[in-house]
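Exercise 3.2. Students should predict the tertiary structure of the chain below and write it as structure tokens, then compare their answer with the key that follows.

Predict this chain's 3D structure.
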Amino acid sequence: MAASDQLMFARRLGPNARLLIWLLAGVACIVADSRYHALDNLRSSFSMLLQPVRETLRVPANVAVELGGFFTRHRLLQNERDALRAERAQLWVSVNASREIARENAELRALLQLQARPGQKVVHAALLYQGHDWFAQRVTLDRGAVSKLRSGLPVVDASGLVGQLSRVYPGTSELTLVSSPEQLTPVFVERTGQRGLVAGSGRGQLELRYMPTHTDVRVNDRLLTSGIDRVYPAGIPVARVTRVSRSQSGPYLRVEGVPLAGLDRSRAVLVVVAEPQVVQAPPPPSPASAPLSPQVKLP
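Answer key:
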């Protein structure tokens, strides 16, 4: 039996009726919103309520975009860094090459300022390489017998005496540096004119030998070639005195010096070649100036 508060024979709405009711309600809402804007406040309220949900749903996409951008920027920065490093290396090579060219130009300008003395000529040469034995104090030049060079000729640079040619080949020649122990160079002290012999020590140093203890030699004195050996022209700078000490047991001073020439840095040098002096014979006397022969009288 039905309860006392329930109607007998009550009927529910069918699906079609409910659909019709919802359609009418929807049409009424659309008309009210489009004509009277009755649902704007309701729409704003729902938008504010759903804003956190939208932000939350957007987070994975934003994270993915940021990660992709990070890796892209990181790759671009790495490529730019590698390009900058390569460019910096090229710039350093160019700077070093420019410095080397400037140094060679300065050295060549200084060599061009050297004037050959009367009766001499100079041959420009370049240092090719130093031998395998670095302690031999020998280097190889790019000029030889083809350039009319011969053994024994002096070699100078813009600062002073470099050495002497020891061997000459057709296209190259071997230069023995003035600092070699095999070299003895007659010199004189520029300040006093005192003559002596400079010998190499093999370590880039020079020693002025056989100077008596009473000789006036001071630090910073320049030693020039004396020319008495007829090998080195007189007046070529050889060394600068760096140390003078007196031996208690020997009769000679110990005078040490450093070469003035760039033995370990010169690239271009001059080989001094002496030309033979041509002595011109006096011209024969003219007939007008010839003395008259005495006349012989016949008996």
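Discussion points: The mean pLDDT is 78. The chain has two domains: 17-113, 120-274.
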